[in-house]
Specification:
TIM Barrel, four-stranded parallel β-sheet, 10 strands, 43% helix, three-stranded parallel β-sheet, alpha/beta, 387 residues
Length: 387
């Protein structure tokens, strides 16, 4: 006998369930209750209603490669293990030839997206960033270049002595296709002042987002959780994103990012739990009614939690990745190879009972035949998907 949905959520969450079933927008108070209720199963159940209403059983993924062009940074964020510092990663700054070489590492892999971010390195001139984008486009014709967080965009504009609008226009002309999330972590003045005061504040971050939207540049959104933020600040972050999306409509997806304290100035904090990861994905899905997609970043969440998340609101499992340098395990600063094969990605999604769907960076569904005809015309044909 099937369970009554009202029994699953219980009396406390029943008003939220009714809103979810009716497709109504949730309030700040609803969001805080979702963050604090011990009934995680109910939160996931409701998030799955929204997820399946939008996407059914489909789970999207992309063939991507990450390139972090420098780890030299003058922002000194307390939550960061990436930037070069004493006892941590050695400083580096990639030349354009080194970027080409990095792209050649995976020449035999069909890729549709190159994701590039880096530290705020005051030594890099304006021309470097334009040439960086051009280099990627020349080395991998046809790929989508997703690059530069808002804080990087402001630094690039400063180096070029141009406005943010002009900077974005120049980068688009060079081949920039979209902006990643990041750069603000969480929209809280309190957390900003305590953890990353040298970076953009919330209003400055929104200014860059509005400039990108005005130029037709799509953007991704993120939230870093699990450090010193409160439940109220998490919900406020989501509401501010929701309001900005109402205004611009240019965000493609939301990725909740779990904070890993290893090798940071906050190393005394506990690491993320399964409850943290699943709850934040589910709450994002429920609060962000105007975002089409919620992503589980499997490198931070782990493969098993990502599989679970596909029933807690997530409809995107990110991509194959091929090296990720932003989050290091303590004492393993050289261990950067983190990737899934195409077959393993498909298997991961199928094992969770979902339908794997390959996408491009703008969430258009693509087939192996289309990929063979465009991104990898000189390589051997790809195997057909099993799903």
């Amino acid at each position: 006998m099937a369970l009554d949905p009202h029994q699953i959520v219980g009396e406390e969450l029943l008003p939220i369930l009714k809103k979810v079933e009716a497709g109504e927008r949730l309030s700040r108070e609803d969001g805080i209750l979702l963050c604090t209720t011990p009934n995680l199963t109910a939160v996931g159940y409701m998030a799955n209603i929204v997820r399946e209403r939008k996407h059914g059983g489909k789970t999207y993924f992309v063939r991507n490669q990450h390139i972090n062009y420098t780890n030299i940074c003058n922002k000194f964020c307390k939550f960061c293990s990436f930037y070069a510092k004493k006892g941590g990663p050695a400083p580096y700054q990639m030349t354009l030839e080194e970027v080409k070489h990095r792209l050649e590492w995976h020449r035999d892999v069909a890729l549709t997206e190159i994701h590039m971010v880096g530290g705020i390195n005051p030594r890099l001139p304006y021309s470097y960033y334009l040439d960086l984008v051009r280099t990627v486009k020349e080395a991998r014709p046809g790929v989508h270049v997703k690059a530069f967080t808002a804080v990087e965009i402001v630094e690039i504009a400063r180096q070029g002595k141009v406005t943010v609008d002009q900077c974005l226009a120049d980068l688009i002309e060079a081949g920039l296709d979209s902006l990643p999330g990041g750069g603000i972590e969480i929209l809280s003045d309190r957390v900003h002042a305590e953890l990353f005061g040298k970076k953009l504040n919330g209003e400055e971050w929104k200014m860059v987002a509005r400039a990108a939207a005005k130029l037709g540049l799509k953007q991704y959104a993120t939230m870093l959780y699990g450090h010193i933020e409160t439940d109220e600040e998490r919900v406020d972050h989501l509401i501010q994103l929701r309001e900005l999306q109402d205004e611009t409509g240019h965000f493609l997806t939301m990725t909740p990012l779990s904070f890993h304290p290893e090798a940071t100035e906050l190393s005394d904090l506990a690491g993320p739990t399964g409850d943290d990861d699943l709850r934040n994905i589910a709450v994002c899905r429920l609060m962000l009614d105007n975002f089409d997609h919620i992503k589980s970043f499997w490198i931070m969440n782990t493969v098993p939690i990502t599989q679970m998340s596909l029933w807690y609101g997530a409809d995107d499992a990110d991509g194959l990745v091929h090296e990720y340098e932003i989050t290091y395990k303590s004492g393993e600063f050289g261990n950067k190879s983190q990737s899934l094969t195409y077959e393993n990605m498909v298997r991961m999604i199928e094992e969770a009972g979902r339908i794997p769907v390959e996408r491009d960076s703008l969430y258009r569904e693509i087939t192996p035949e289309e990929l063979n005809a465009t991104i990898r015309p000189k390589l051997s044909p790809l195997p057909m998907a099993t799903a």
